[in-house]
Amino acid sequence: MTSEKVEGIAKEIAGEAQEKVGAALGDPAMELAGTAKVLCGESRQLVADAAVVAREAIAESPLRVLGITAAIGFALGLLWRRSRD
Length: 85
Prior knowledge:
Layout: H1 3-25, H2 28-60, H3 62-84
Helix pairs in contact: 1-2, 2-3
């Protein structure tokens, strides 16, 4: 488990606790801040998982990943050129 994933889990747990305290105290601002922390923690975990998947894909077939990356870059270049015209 990566440190980014561990940080995401910790932030999610802290956010859930803050949500519950905010709900118990009737403080909507604290509850909303807790919800934001939960979402931030979940997004960190997703980024960590995506990094692992990308790392494994590159290790298994680097040429395929290079081709996909080049195709995406080419498509983005066409879209950027089209938006400038």
